[in-house]
Write a structure and sequence with these properties.
374 residues, alpha+beta, seven-stranded antiparallel sheet, 6 helices, 11 strands, disordered N terminus, binds calcium ion
Length: 374
């Protein structure tokens, strides 16, 4: 799994090699044009979807439940292609979403075997997921009428995941696909194992620009489209800037995604980030002082000493037992209050309430013990 963590490093390293060697070396391939590479990748992916079929294992409560085997169609009259399921109203269904990155509108196909019944991760949560990864390759000289036109080579399989994978650290395609699925239920089984049921399960088909692109990874060649089948067993809310507010709740525009858009290769237009309250380019989920007022968000959500309940105005919709693994006390019955004008009571319960840390005016009334941004 480590190779995923190094995705960004590999990407930057590749860019660095390219820029350093422009003048003095001819044997390093220049970074390919993203649109040209995408056009080639999506043709490979669509050929793969049209020439392969799936078999799904139904075995509730067993590790093999929702295993999916993908193989070349050998009996065209009997076997349905994956493409056959495009926009099917019943499961399995093949869906497609558009992801804009590198000035390219990437088509991301994903097959939903089952949606799941619980919560969905955001694109920066942790996921506990089994997965099987393959990379696609179009044989030289093959034509679209040749059924063996595209080969798939497995590079990794994790059947019993031991840790949560932070989607923010993974290839972009993971962060764009997992939020379309939900976890299921979990029950303690025999021998200390946990039995997962009704979890979301699917297959994602990623153009290389949403995978490792020029970097490749391990045995994966550069510019490979990737296919991952996966089962979403559980999710873990993460707090990337350690300000006491989960990253998924720093989604200011409420679209379910938070993004760091500072990389000009990924976001050439450098448009304003909708989840960046103070507009300094650092998105709220990575900014310790979201509103840029000189007081950390962590300070702003902390209640005055002696206040009843938990020590923070957070979260709203409390649960009975505090989860010690999370940065907040889940027993807090009041959310982060709406900013109140002088003489008004702050609103702790309106779903539309403003949050202290996104309200620039909050401290103009009562600056208590100022804690400066580090
Ligand atoms: Ca945070
Ligand atoms: Ca957002
Ligand atoms: Ca900011
Ligand atoms: Ca602040």
């Amino acid at each position: 799994m480590n190779k995923f963590k190094y995705y960004f490093i590999l990407t930057f390293a590749t860019l660095a090699i390219f820029s350093c060697s422009k003048s003095d070396s001819a044997d390093v391939e220049p970074l390919r044009d993203f649109q040209v590479q995408y056009d080639a990748d999506i043709a490979v992916i669509e050929d793969y979807l049209k020439t392969n079929t799936i078999t799904i294992t139904e075995a509730a409560g067993k590790p093999e439940d929702q295993d999916v085997k993908i193989k070349l169609i050998t009996k065209p009259n009997e076997e349905k292609s994956i493409w056959f399921y495009l926009n099917s109203p019943t499961f399995p269904t093949l869906k497609v979403k558009t992801v804009n990155l590198h000035n390219v509108d990437y088509k991301l196909y994903y097959l939903v075997l089952r949606e799941g019944t619980g919560e969905s991760p955001s694109n920066v949560d942790g996921v506990l997921s089994s997965y099987n990864g393959t990379y696609l390759f179009r044989k030289a000289g093959a034509t679209t009428t040749d059924p063996s036109v595209v080969t798939a080579t497995q590079f990794e399989e994790i059947v019993f995941p031991q840790t949560f994978y932070d989607l923010y650290q993974m290839v972009k395609g993971w962060g764009e696909t997992f939020p379309e699925f939900k976890v299921g239920t979990s029950d303690p089984g025999n021998n200390g194992t946990i039995v997962y049921n009704d979890f979301g399960a699917g297959v994602m088909f990623l153009p290389s620009g949403l995978g490792y692109y020029a970097g490749g990874s391990g045995s994966i060649p550069s510019y490979s489209p990737l296919v991952f089948s996966f089962k979403l067993y559980a999710l873990q809310r993460l707090d990337h800037d350690g300000d006491g507010v989960f990253s998924y709740q720093e989604d200011k525009d409420g679209d379910g995604y938070v993004r760091d858009m500072r990389n000009a290769t990924e976001y050439p237009k450098q448009l304003p980030n909708p989840d960046d309250t103070d507009g300094d380019g650092i998105p709220d989920f990575l900014d310790v002082d979201d509103d840029g007022d000189g007081y950390t968000t962590k300070f702003e959500i902390t209640k005055p000493a002696g206040s009843p309940g938990a020590s923070k105005y957070y979260p709203y919709d409390p649960i009975l037992i505090d989860n010690p693994l999370t940065p907040v006390d889940e027993r807090e019955p009041r959310g982060i209050p709406q900013f109140a004008k002088l003489g008004e009571e702050p609103d702790y319960t309106s779903p539309k309430r403003l949050r202290i840390h996104v309200d620039k005016d909050h401290h103009t009334a009562t600056p208590v013990v100022p804690v400066k941004k580090p």
